[in-house]
């Protein structure tokens, strides 16, 4: 169980971005957001319509009424279920990440993921860059 951040760091609007490593060694971005009940939820940082479309492009995802809005085509994903019932991503659900809140700390409790660092994957590590050839 790895501590990601504190609940204070998860904004009312927008998102808190961090990077994890998948069990196969790939890096992936995750966002923490507040849903309409002010509960914190964690989702992998990509749209289900086009999976190379990030929801948080480094400046926080666009959120409204506890939902996450895809910056490309504007589909809105429910912040607590991840489900989308509108636009191009209708019928899809964001990829969930397991977290646990203990008092004011947010922990990563997803067995498939290891916490790397706060913030997004650095540009050097983006898919297609030479740094991935080692895998
Ligand atoms: S890429 Fe997100 S709705 Fe199209």
From TrEMBL:
<dbReference type="InterPro" id="IPR036922">
    <property type="entry name" value="Rieske_2Fe-2S_sf"/>
</dbReference>
<keyword id="KW-0411">Iron-sulfur</keyword>
<dbReference type="GO" id="GO:0046872">
    <property type="term" value="F:metal ion binding"/>
</dbReference>
<dbReference type="Pfam" id="PF00355">
    <property type="entry name" value="Rieske"/>
</dbReference>
<keyword id="KW-0001">2Fe-2S</keyword>
<keyword id="KW-0479">Metal-binding</keyword>
<feature type="domain" description="Rieske">
    <location>
        <begin position="17"/>
        <end position="108"/>
    </location>
</feature>
<dbReference type="GO" id="GO:0051537">
    <property type="term" value="F:2 iron, 2 sulfur cluster binding"/>
</dbReference>
<dbReference type="InterPro" id="IPR017941">
    <property type="entry name" value="Rieske_2Fe-2S"/>
</dbReference>
<keyword id="KW-0408">Iron</keyword>
<protein>
    <submittedName>
        <fullName>Rieske 2Fe-2S domain-containing protein</fullName>
    </submittedName>
</protein>
